[in-house]
Amino acid sequence: MEKSHLIDLKQFEIFYSIEYSSIQELIKYGQIKQISKNTLLIEEGQENENIYFLLKGMAYHFCLCDLSTKRILNVDEKGRFLNEDALYQEKASSSIEVCKNSVLLVIPISTMEKIILEQPLFSKQIHLSLMNKYKENQTLLRYNSYQNSQERLKFYLFYLAKKFGKKQNDQIEIMGDFSVVFLSQLIGAKRETTSRILNQLIDQHFLFYQDKHLVILQPQQNKQKNIYN
């Protein structure tokens, strides 16, 4: 991919306020990388050297509760930064994994620091992104403590619907592919448990799930408290 294509950064909302001179800085010092699905991009505790921007694809932040259990903290698609807190701390606070084939803009921290100093409105956007991500992290971790796994999965499905959902009449189609393994990591349950809960929700006509594709059915009739509305 040619670096000149980076001028398309202006299509993303977070770059609306940034001047073209600063975009040229990103073009000069940034690197575009194509990352394969399921690639571990950064590991918790790793030295922070870069900030990542998703030009295409999807990735998620997670922490390890033990050697085998992930807790997903948030999920981001194209047009979002990853690892923004690298601006403020030496080591990564969470791990990041790409969950579908993606294209990333890799930006050295020194370049981002320079642009933020020069562009106060852009700096405000970065701070807002971090604040929203922190709130999201705290909310998802809190709901991981639910004892009722089915209600917990419903909550996470509403979370995915808010971030990636497309409303059509009485349905919400969740754009993207989400495997049972991924959903089990969201709720902190075994794959077999998550699969059983999905089948229960399908039987209850709460959702449609096939080939990793999620559609929530008749959401207005569901009594689940959705704190994301």
Give a brief outline of the structure:
The chain is of the alpha+beta class and 229 residues long. The protein has six helices and ten strands, in the order αββββββαααββααββ.
Strand content: 25-35%
Structural shape: globular
Low-confidence stretches: 1-6
| Number of DSSP-assigned strands | 10
What does this structure look like?
- With about 230 residues, the protein is an alpha+beta fold.
- The protein is built from 6 helices and 10 strands.
- The strands form 2 sheets. Strands 1, 2, 3, 4, 5 and 6 form a 6-stranded antiparallel sheet that branches.
- Helix 1 runs antiparallel to helix 2 (about 110-120), helix 2 (about 110-120) packs across helix 3 (about 120-145) and helix 5 packs across helix 6.
- The protein is globular and about 55 Å long.
- The model is unreliable at about 1-5 (pLDDT under 50).
Question: Would you spell out the secondary-structure blueprint of this structure?
Answer:
Blueprint: H1 20-29, E1 31-35, E2 40-42, E3 50-64, E4 70-77, E5 81-82, E6 95-108, H2 109-118, H3 120-143, H4 149-164, E7 165-168, E8 171-174, H5 180-187, H6 191-203, E9 207-210, E10 213-217
Antiparallel strand pairs: 1-6, 2-6, 3-4, 3-5, 3-6, 7-8, 8-10, 9-10
Helix pairs in contact: 1-2, 2-3, 5-6
